[in-house]
């Protein structure tokens, strides 16, 4: 699927309008309980409507599944949330702030990230180098050593902190022994672990996972799911697209079902899989 080259600048996003102190208090409570809220999201590509009024929210500390038949609009929704696409209309709120149309890096800096597949050129770099590429906004990227006293020390300090964090993440995902290997030589499952480890370099609050288990063998799948549950216990929130219904049933407490660009049903895994509309949407398939 092709992507637009990034959303609008952060400054272009509209501020959340709050009419009364009571509304502000309500909004703050909602934002605390549901860090991510999608309201009436639409996205069209020429004559094609990919997302058609999708609305849902993701509860704090949850592992929420986003499912739906092929072409339901899941990836486009992810791309709108993370700023890869600018929505045609609708609102996306993160922690109560309107982030609609913000650039991907601005959204990531706020603590909302998605895992990215290792791009074509990155297999030529080592696992550790891939990890070090992830964080943005370091001192050395914006300023010159010559004009700012002490900047070199600050940059060195930041690099050391990043390196330490990179090793911590590699150890957490049990791929530290692969640090010096080229990313291109990793197995599909190891690559998925690296993608997760890399996404977590920026210490995000909410992580969007797009089929994190695709092509992963059962042993690594278990390891990856264990890590996701551990991170969740430490306070992270996850929204994940997954085609494997067993994974959804066994791991998510809340499931959102998309169909033809909007939300068809949501609830516990048991509720959605026994919903006739959901079964019909999958054409009587194996939900
Ligand atoms: N860049 C694009 N240009 C044109 N049409 C697009 C684009 N991206 C998505 N679409 C169309 O929008 C619809 C929704 O696609 P999307 O990839 O979001 O669905 P999905 O639920 O993620 O599907 P899958 O499970 O197969 O990955 C599809 O009809 C798709 O062909």
From TrEMBL:
Keywords assigned: Amino-acid transport, ATP-binding, Nucleotide-binding, Transport
InterPro entries, per database record: AAA+_ATPase, ABC_AA/LPS_Transport, ABC_transporter-like_ATP-bd, ABC_transporter-like_CS, BCA_ABC_TP_C, P-loop_NTPase
Molecular function GO terms recorded: ATP binding; ATP hydrolysis activity
GO (cellular component) term, any one: plasma membrane
The ABC transporter domain, residue ranges: 36-285
Keyword ATP-binding belongs to the record: yes
A biological process term (GO) from this entry: amino acid transport
CDD domains per record: ABC_Mj1267_LivG_branched (cd03219)
Pfam families from the UniProt entry: ABC_tran, BCA_ABC_TP_C
Source species, domain of life: Archaea
Biased composition (Low complexity): 15-26
Presence of the UniProt keyword Transport in the record: yes
Location of region: Disordered: 1-30
Family statement drawn from the similarity comment of this UniProt entry: Belongs to the ABC transporter superfamily.
Protein's job: Probable component of a branched-chain amino-acid transport system.
PANTHER family according to UniProt: CONSERVED COMPONENT OF ABC TRANSPORTER FOR NATURAL AMINO ACIDS, CONSERVED COMPONENT OF ABC TRANSPORTER FOR NATURAL AMINO ACIDS-RELATED
Protein name, per record: Probable branched-chain amino acid transport ATP-binding protein LivG
Organism: Halobaculum gomorrense
